[in-house]
């Protein structure tokens, strides 16, 4: 009997790549929780399998509705849970703080309670927090270890601190097999265009197609980031739940290549077929507060699982740019953001 994995947020960038990885590397059945209105762009390639009930099953659920989560747990009876669903855009959290807090904090509590109260399931649960919990970190605390203090820089950051602590609390108080990750910046194909590097890649692809003038609009370019590929990230998540999982543990995970957002943009521009592209900062793209030093110490996770990033920064960015070029060639219509 194959094991069963529940992925909340399967239609997102990370959830869809995780489904791909598990289909290719395990014999597990995959249950993907998504809202009835969730865009299916990232999982188009999975829909034939969903329709044929071939190892992939979509379940209607919403983190703001406890009854729906009870139903999802009953239908999936998972051996593993990857809790990826969230309001995941830091910038949006400034304009929708209540929805962000409800979805990410209370939504995590609802899910863990639904799992806790089911009479027959006791899964290994991956609670996906974020490096944003660390927020504004002084230079002397770099690289950021697991015990670095939290200094939130957005309502999103606050919501992920709640997510982080709830997962660890459920492990300690109720004995649930919760493990928490703080994944640092990760990107690649299917990245939403509200994130800086994906917005830049989309704009460049549109410039190449003559859909925009040769100007990339930006926010803060001075933030320092360590970059990882989403395909390395989902491999890490698989190892997290299968390599001697220790309930209540928490790990930083991230890439090995660090540079500023400006350096990342300059690399993308260097790969463009348009020789002269200008850069302009737009006030609307600048956050009121920013987590501007995001360099992780990932030794704890690497020592426990043996995981190391394998995909280079250059390949990640090239693949992201090619992803947007393909969407532009398909003549899709886009918001200019």
Automatic annotation (TrEMBL):
Annotated InterPro entries: NAD(P)-bd_dom (IPR016040), NAD(P)-bd_dom_sf (IPR036291)
Keywords: Lyase
Highest rank taxon of the organism: Bacteria
Cofactor(s) recorded in Swiss-Prot or TrEMBL: NADP(+)
Catalytic reaction list: GDP-alpha-D-mannose = GDP-4-dehydro-alpha-D-rhamnose + H2O
NAD(P)-binding domain boundaries: 6-319
Annotated Gene3D superfamilies: NAD(P)-binding Rossmann-like Domain (3.40.50.720), UDP-galactose 4-epimerase, domain 1 (3.90.25.10)
GO molecular function annotations of the record: GDP-mannose 4,6-dehydratase activity
Functional note: Catalyzes the conversion of GDP-D-mannose to GDP-4-dehydro-6-deoxy-D-mannose.
Protein name as it appears in the record: GDP-mannose 4,6 dehydratase
Species annotation: Thalassotalea euphylliae
Taxonomic path: Bacteria, Pseudomonadati, Pseudomonadota, Gammaproteobacteria, Alteromonadales
